[in-house]
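Appendix C. Worked example: FAD-dependent oxidoreductase
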Amino acid sequence: MRIVVVGAGIVGAAAAYELARAGVETVLVDAAHEGRATSAGAGIICPWSGRVAEPLAVAGAGYYPDLLEALAEDGQDDVGYRRVGALVLLPADGSEAAQVRERVSARAAADPHAGEVRVVGASDAHRMFPALAPAQTHGDRPGGHALGAARHRHAFAKDVLHLSGAARLDGRRLRSALVSAAERHGLRVVGGTARVEARGARVRGVRVDGEVLEADTVVAAAGSWSPALLEPFGVRVPVVPQRGQIVHLGLSGTDTAHWPVVLPGTGHYLLTFDDSRVVVGATRESGTGFDHRVTAAGLAEVLEAAMAVAPGLARATHLETRVGFRPTTPDGQPVVGTVSGTPGAPELVVANGLGSGGLTAGPFAGAVAARLALGREPGIDTGPYDPLRFASSA
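Step 2, the predicted output written as structure tokens:
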């Protein structure tokens, strides 16, 4: 049996790893597109704090311990994953703050991976993430920095919610580890752009730069580039790119290895890595197509929002700005399921549309796709993620 996985982002790499570990002849096709979401994504693993707890994302967070153990057995024991916790900034409005506390606490109680939820004061939050304002008077700037103070002045309660189970992850390192570990099990990686090859109505593989890679099953995990792969075969999965601009800052000489993720509840975020690096983001820009530029408006939005809650970043050095194209769907839900063949012998499996939750749900979504390709139980109800649910609106 041979399975070809198209797309070597986090979903495709995870699917290829699952298949190769299962002893299946596996080929991974990597087009190495500029703007691949995995390479730009911030890497926050905290699906319990948002307004909606997406089941695939929650399952994805819970999948990480097993995945990390498997990768370690395959010689990949450092993928940039660390459980650092998260600080959820509470609204100043007492009733809204109570709703957030109740929501997060209920989700944490239902999922042991979420860890402990507790309320901490502003001074404790500042101790854990020293760039935060000592008190929640966000919008003020030290040293005369008034960038965006009016537009991004947010009112937060003095107390902050701490969620111990949250983690951060380096998506680039994890993707590389998955591919390397899969190669240890016989994975073949082919560079180039694929298109589905069919004989009549049956998928027979993919063509990559003139070479036909025949397969029993194709897993389409090409992110925002999936329509170009699938539509010529007659499969419409309306995934479109949403541009995200994410800024990396350096705090030279500062040990940021264990700083928690900061979630202001505004759609922006802050997190850190071991190399004195602070990552702040992100824009959510629809209708940009594959325009890979860093824009003045994007930089202003991200930096203003970051310093509104963490004025200590005013002295940081700008290191780089990463741009990625999140694959999004019209209803905001992922697409994971079989679109051709029978459940026991699928010819085409699609795994896509994870949006901003790609690094949270991606490895598990890839594993689900691999299980579907093998005709096995996926481990989650894939009904809500049916790739063909958009067919009636075509």
